[in-house]
Amino acid sequence: MYHFRNDYSQGAHPRVLDALVRTNLESTAGYGEDEYCQAAASMVKARFQCPDADIHFLVGGTQTNFTAITAFLRPWEAAVAVDTGHIAVHETGAVEARGHKVITVPHEEGKMTPSALRKVYEEHTCCNWNHLVLPKLLYLSDSTELGTIYTKEELKALSETCRELNMYLYLDGARLASALTAPGNDIAPEDLPGYCDAFTIGGTKNGLLFGECLVITNPALTENFRFCLKQCGAMLAKGRLLGVQFSALLEEDLWLQLGRHANRLAQRLTQGLVEKGYALYAHSPTNQLFPILPKEKIEELKRSFTFEFIAPVDESYDAVRFVTAWGSTDEAVDALLEAL
Amino acid sequence: MYHFRNDYSQGAHPRVLDALVRTNLESTAGYGEDEYCQAAASMVKARFQCPDADIHFLVGGTQTNFTAITAFLRPWEAAVAVDTGHIAVHETGAVEARGHKVITVPHEEGKMTPSALRKVYEEHTCCNWNHLVLPKLLYLSDSTELGTIYTKEELKALSETCRELNMYLYLDGARLASALTAPGNDIAPEDLPGYCDAFTIGGTKNGLLFGECLVITNPALTENFRFCLKQCGAMLAKGRLLGVQFSALLEEDLWLQLGRHANRLAQRLTQGLVEKGYALYAHSPTNQLFPILPKEKIEELKRSFTFEFIAPVDESYDAVRFVTAWGSTDEAVDALLEAL
Amino acid sequence: MYHFRNDYSQGAHPRVLDALVRTNLESTAGYGEDEYCQAAASMVKARFQCPDADIHFLVGGTQTNFTAITAFLRPWEAAVAVDTGHIAVHETGAVEARGHKVITVPHEEGKMTPSALRKVYEEHTCCNWNHLVLPKLLYLSDSTELGTIYTKEELKALSETCRELNMYLYLDGARLASALTAPGNDIAPEDLPGYCDAFTIGGTKNGLLFGECLVITNPALTENFRFCLKQCGAMLAKGRLLGVQFSALLEEDLWLQLGRHANRLAQRLTQGLVEKGYALYAHSPTNQLFPILPKEKIEELKRSFTFEFIAPVDESYDAVRFVTAWGSTDEAVDALLEAL
Amino acid sequence: MYHFRNDYSQGAHPRVLDALVRTNLESTAGYGEDEYCQAAASMVKARFQCPDADIHFLVGGTQTNFTAITAFLRPWEAAVAVDTGHIAVHETGAVEARGHKVITVPHEEGKMTPSALRKVYEEHTCCNWNHLVLPKLLYLSDSTELGTIYTKEELKALSETCRELNMYLYLDGARLASALTAPGNDIAPEDLPGYCDAFTIGGTKNGLLFGECLVITNPALTENFRFCLKQCGAMLAKGRLLGVQFSALLEEDLWLQLGRHANRLAQRLTQGLVEKGYALYAHSPTNQLFPILPKEKIEELKRSFTFEFIAPVDESYDAVRFVTAWGSTDEAVDALLEAL
């Protein structure tokens, strides 16, 4: 069986696991107040050139998103996301469960545009003021749920729009490494602090056992954040496990190496799919592919490959998702290309 | 100045006010546990032919909606509404503030359809089960936010779809009297208990100082409801004020008389608008009208009439809203028709 | 039957009701944005000498408390109250339902002391910082749930402690008029803005049909409050009803006249009880009395008087509560004294 | 430096870590739907003799507590705990943040008694029904926050009281292994399903990198629990990490071996403390000790040992906490005994 189901089906990259094994019997302070977390935070600040940022390490993506949004917003303030946004669809209403509406707008290839943001903001604030929620935080993901990425120009425009509208920009980087190493990407890690009020660096989908790093660059959003972390169940007792893993991931830019590897395999697959004449449900330069395949072909592939169903297309075709990861191999891609 | 701003700009209908004045110095038990509330509840049960229903009297519409939904749903369950639905737009995220997502679907003339409901239900339950919220309650309003009404056939179809999908049907009747007395309506009060798990009878917009009656007909939803009422700030200390008012409103079907009056004036206005060649933003047989008027005409009308801006249409035209109420007069309608 | 059950068993004081009747057919803007609410707000600002305060009119006490606390606190911040405090006991967890812990400390005759406040603050902040909630708001009521009142010196000391601890002082004045007119009171209305960050002026228990006035004097707490009002279901559609009523209540200090009347009758009762040798469960100078009576006497009284059971004392005695109100009469007090 | 700070300062027990390393590169389904979680669930069911229980694996203790309570309670229902209970004090109001009051009663050596439970239940339900929250879930921890344990008789009595009062019994077993292997314990693992509606088996403090197992034995509480898991951020992407770890911990009852080890060292320490004449703040037979030490001695010990301050006792003495764990050594205990 070859696995293209997702990018979190294996354990940790060997260098990450080694770091955990090596430090296993040390005794440190709990709850992220240890030297490993400090060191990892320093590495993040250096790599992203944000020496004054507030850095927190959390376990999972849904947890990170709702904890941050809970801390950042007042009760009547809302997040804005595209209708495919992870917080809008795939987190079982975790943001609403903490009291905040997620306003959605139609996506364009998985992405938000300044005009869509401005439109929804104006609809909420033009009249009947205070009978509608106040849009206050823009939720983006890069790469998006459709595998697409933002250009620097696009991110800059959204950031400027947010500032003009007095909104925060929060970027969910669950697949940030894949985005930043994708063909066509022109955003550098050190660009993010300037454009975002907060962003995350995903570890779970890029070689860690688990772990997301939250970088808060807007100083107005940092006060008492650790209270919220604890209240949301997001303060890991053995917090150093996150520091140890992120240090290993940042060392020699392993995170970007792994992102690049996954992207390369995905691009090989994409090229093969296109050559064979298959249509694509979305045009992704990153590690998630969304081909449209004949239903019989899908049944046939299931015998030797794991992957996900995404959406029905017509009577004969469905869209599916293949995901490559840090642990995917050329051999698996060869096998899939042959079978397609 | 003539008022077409809304249907809650005056105090109470004289018969309602008289009842309050007449009973003012009586001493009764508080919190709705008095004889007046009991009497009003009996009148509701008789009028709507639901002898076993659980009847509660609340102060306002937003309060009623979020209190009911809070009591009915578990944390991961969501309400479904059209995108113009009151809970989806004009209640400052009150439902989300109590933890529940409001899933929206595009409206058809302000209304929900069985196919739209089924589609959104299936999208949420087909796969990735438990990463998405569980659609559990259908929110309808009759009349809708665009003044349109459901036919019996439409309501029946939605009710059957809800039962099939194991969802509750909650009908917001903030303007129920206007809906049930509108030209084209074929729903009788006594039809509602059979189609709905809960519905409300609006008083605020139909001649009370304030007050909404919540009728819970699904016995699975009634247990401990008064705890929720108190917790949501919806248990009025002098609860009998609601019982006294609703008794007066139900007596000799005053509520339907008032609805009919408002509708008649609105239809006179509609007819005049159409005769003068104005287009309508929505086709409403009830007491809210949405004509599209030239901007200069709007400016001119503002000098003598109150009404609301609804939406921009194009460079020269805007959509506005005229609302008639129990206290509106033929004289005011004549004046407006003349000015149009 | 004579009624000593509570201070909200009748309707409105005649002057309040007259004002409602007189203005009933006027058309005004909704949601508290009318001239009557503006006028009443001006009267409040003048009477309490707080020209820059933010004034809001709400329907009920529980609603006012949780709406204010929801707006004032961040998710990890808590309210502190005595263990008899209304928000701690009798509001069905409304504050917790909005996400905030209510920390309780033992009361002293229904009252909070600076040392108890300081102790609980220090216990929460001395160590293990951010694993405990952050005490941020002191909830007081005056008069208290046991009918007792704060002296100016006591309130000043609590206010200074709050400032030192960076906490807000919120005073629930559901029975403020009774407190400010009680024997022994030395607090003037115009003292409150200096000591409190926010306080309420109760109308429901002092001659209105319903209504609480929230006065926010700390400018850091006012931004966007009306969003919270709407979200909490506390924005009355016919908001002017609150403005009309409060204007009538403030005119010629009717509110204080009514408080004084209720207190005078209560003091007559207390004197009689003491003369007859009954013990008191709490020493209240205000309109709530808590005598300890023989169980047979209680049964006997029930035939002609309404009142509430409070707590068992021993095999032969129970504590009960008699409440006088603006509408109570000397005749009723005479009857009760005779029956005791 | 010798560590007695807590039982989560090291990584994982070697057998647990080995299992993670051994399975690291396997590809499995995510979100706990893999074979390792299934196998671990089967081992739990067999060991605790609850073949029909619903088993879930979560990351941390605070997360497990609030997720379970969120799923089990309706909005107006409350948890009851002793005033030292973990959910009442050390989880930053996580239960309240999800809307539920935690009612506290004074502890007896860290424990709840049936009479205290019954008293608080009756106070909440005797009168004024539905103005108070409804006590619905008893929160216990075994061992308690003071290191004490429940006897079978005590647990049985609490369980019977809960059933009589129609309340759930939830037992937080963050330190369950230490409790079940303590001198004086007469509760067997297989006793718990009969007494509890749900209980947890702590892994974080007993040799796992992280992980708590939630066992729901009341079938009325299991429906749709995984929705709540996801919504609360408690569904780990690489869920199998929990299955792998718990399998290793349950194999050959490693969990009890580790609990026994920690207890033995703690008892050696206790004996030494008593022999040296030190008083104890609480009498714990488990792995947490609470000696009262002279302040100078505390300062002296800090140079070579890590441990926690608990509470001031008087001018000369403070209470501190020493914790032993699966990784503690006789050598460290010898060193501490010598230094005392």
Describe this structure in words.
Four copies of one chain form a homotetramer. In chain A, 40% of the residues lie in helices and 18% in strands. Chain A is an alpha/beta fold and 340 residues long. The first copy, chain A, has a seven-stranded mixed beta sheet, sandwiched between helices. In chain A, strands 9, 10, 11, 13 and 14 form a five-stranded antiparallel beta sheet that branches. In chain A, strand 5, helix 7 and strand 6 (168-172) form a beta-alpha-beta unit. The longest helix of chain A has 22 residues, at 254-275. The two termini of chain A are 15 Å apart. The mean pLDDT of chain A is 97. Chains in contact: A-B, A-C, A-D, B-C, B-D, C-D.
Overall 3D shape of chain A: globular
In N-to-C order, the SSE pattern of chain A is EHHEHEHHEHEHEHHEEHHHEEEHEEEH
Assembly annotation:
homotetramer
Number of helices of chain A: 14
What is the C-alpha radius of gyration of chain A, as a whole number of Å? Answer: 20 Å
Number of strands of chain A: 14
Tell me which protein chains meet in the greatest interface and how many residues each side has: A-D, 52 and 51 residues
Calculate the mean pLDDT score of chain A and round it: 97
What separation lies between the terminal Cα atoms of chain A? 15 Å
Approximate helicity band of chain A: 40-55%
Largest sheet of chain A: 7 strands, mixed
Poorly predicted regions of chain A are: none
Spatial order of strands in the largest sheet of chain A: 2-8-7-6-5-3-4
Beta fraction of chain A: 15-25%
Structural class of chain A: alpha/beta
